[in-house]
Design a protein that fits this description.
Mean pLDDT: 78
Low-confidence stretches: 1-7, 297-321
CATH class of the largest domain: Mainly Alpha
CATH superfamily of the largest domain: Cation efflux protein transmembrane domain
Strand order of the largest sheet: 1-2-3
CATH topology of the largest domain: Alpha-lytic protease prodomain-like
Distance between the termini: 10 Å
Largest sheet: 3 strands, mixed
Order of helices and strands: HHHHHHHEEHEEEH
Number of helices: 9
């Protein structure tokens, strides 16, 4: 399973770095052209493209970091790096949108003439560039939050560039220069809207929230249905990265030899893997004869040690499996 993931990240890493190079070159070209054409739309779109170049670089860096194996100080590997990158990206986009909206307001109050011919050519080139990058990122964006962040940036750019083309045509045929700031304000709002989803999802992972689409009650009731399980408590499920999840819990079973309880452990792990894609599990088995009270199983130290330790190996073996 792991080698499959690495092939993916190698491919998406290459796509991201080439996209970054292309975008950076385009930003320089667009900024120069925008200054010459006196077009705020082109200059602000160059700024937008610059945040995208940054987004691609962060996304590439995160893919590179995620491929590094776990080490002694980062025992889960570097999955969170990608999530953190997506979060920083989305925040930078919101900040940029604020600037765009402010500039648009100033331009609405005092419209300025622009060279709409240059706007059409430059924005047309942007449509081609962003479209190409989106096609390259599309497959990976479906299952990686980090690449999805970069993909969302590109989508915002593509729509922005199309809007500039339409606006330039409108200026050419109506001479109404306020079209330019109205469009850039619309782009700003669109960008905030698309970035918000990434901010929400990445914050949920960073704050150890329940992975999106999982229901804790469903997880616990499916563990309880496993034959031999009496009860489950101290259940925790969280996300390590955008595509990997972890679970820990205590499972109450009858007093039985270790060889028998091994089967229950395997069944629980199989249910979690098949139904919820939970493969990083730490499950502690507790035996019912420890000390039963009304509040559930209260476990004296020696009993806890005995069974907890024996289980550890079983859980570990599964984890590598």
């Amino acid at each position: 399973m792991h080698s499959h993931h690495h092939d993916h990240s190698g491919k998406s890493g290459r796509t991201l770095i080439w996209s970054f190079v292309a975008t950076t070159a385009f930003v320089i070209f667009e900024f120069v052209a925008g200054t010459r054409a006196h077009s705020l739309a082109l200059i602000s779109d160059a700024g937008h493209n610059l945040t995208d170049a940054l987004a691609l670089l962060l996304a590439w860096f995160a893919v590179y970091i995620q491929r590094k194996p776990a080490d002694e100080s980062r025992t889960f590997g570097y999955h969170r790096a990608g999530v953190l990158a997506a979060f920083v990206n989305a925040l930078s986009l919101v900040g940029f949108s604020g600037w765009v909206l402010y500039e648009s307001w100033l331009r609405l109050l005092a419209p300025q003439p622009v060279n709409e011919g240059a706007m059409i050519w430059v924005a047309g080139a942007a449509v081609v560039l962003n479209g190409g990058i989106m096609i390259g990122l599309h497959g990976e964006a479906r299952h990686d939050l980090n690449t999805k962040g970069a993909y969302v940036h590109m989508l915002g750019d593509l729509l922005g560039a199309l809007a500039i083309v339409a606006g330039a045509l409108m200026i050419r045929y109506t001479g109404w220069h306020r079209v330019d700031p109205i469009l850039s304000a619309a782009i700003g709002v669109l960008v905030v809207w698309s970035a918000w989803d990434v901010i929400r999802e990445s914050l949920n992972i960073l704050l150890e929230g329940l992975p999106r689409g999982l229901n804790l009650n469903e997880v616990s009731s499916s563990i309880r249905k496993v034959e031999g399980v009496i009860d489950v408590h101290d259940l925790h499920v969280w996300s390590i990265g955008s595509s990997s999840r972890a679970l820990s819990c205590h499972v109450l079973i009858d007093d039985m030899p270790h060889s028998q309880s091994e089967g229950i452990l395997h069944s629980v792990n199989r249910v979690l893997g098949d139904n919820f894609h939970l493969h990083h599990t730490t499950i502690q088995l507790e035996h019912v004869n420890c000390a039963i009270s009304d509040a559930g199983c209260v476990i004296p130290g020696n009993c806890h040690e005995l069974h907890g330790h024996g289980h550890d190996h079983a859980g570990h073996a599964h984890h590598h499996h």
